[in-house]
Amino acid sequence: MELIIVLLVIVALVVFVVVLYNNLVRLRNAYINAFAQVDVQLKRRHDLIPQLVETVKGYMKHERETLEAVIQARNQAEQIRQAVGNAVGDPKAMAQLGQAEGALGGMLGRLFALSEAYPDLKASANFMQFQEELTSTENRVAYARQAYNDAGMSYNNAVQSVPSNFVASTFGFREVGMLEFEDREAIQQAPKVSFS
């Protein structure tokens, strides 16, 4: 009788560990899938930028440094985005991606601010179309980033919570980094409101 009780306890314990492990795997797959959506939107954003710069080039001939800085920020962000594909969730990689995307966002903001000085550019149908597409993509990026961060938080909660933290540490589940886009210049500047 004692042997049956011991066996039942062992089986219950094994089932409990398996359930916790499977939950961690499910949560890990959720944040990886959520990052895949972020990746798609960032790629779309990065693909739009060279076309936007080409459209702007003809109008903003005296702003070559800004255009080159936008392309350089885009290239750096694209390079980091591709590298993160192999390290989804790694806190350092996610921080690097967030910094690169924040810098890119700051450069795009500067480009759009400069475009205000070029009425022909602002009236250009191509520029307006790219500006609209980029705004739409920025909204998609924000939504996908929030979905990733939500999935990452659920995963991190499971990795940190008792009793799943014992299973997580035993099987090598580590906390994931959140994805925050830091644009210090945009944060420090007051929003500009135009009623024109």
Protein described:
The structure is a single chain. With 196 residues, this protein is an all-alpha fold. It has a single domain (2-188), classed as LemA-like domain (de novo design (two linked rop proteins)), CATH 1.20.1440.20. It is built from seven helices and no strands. It is rod-shaped. The N and C termini lie far apart (85 Å).
Q: How helical, in percent, are the residues? A: over 70%
The CATH homology group name: LemA-like domain
CA(first)-CA(last) distance: 85 Å
Give the biggest sheet.
none
Gross morphology: rod-shaped
Helix/strand-derived class?
Answer: mainly alpha
Quote the CATH topology.
de novo design (two linked rop proteins)
Strand content: under 5%
Measured on Cα atoms, how large is the radius of gyration? 23 Å
What are the secondary-structure elements, in order, as H or E? HHHHHHH
The CATH class, by name, is Mainly Alpha
What number of domains? 1
Would you report the number of β strands? Answer: 0
Total of helices: 7
Low-confidence segments = 184-196
CATH-level-2 architecture: Up-down Bundle
Mean pLDDT: 90
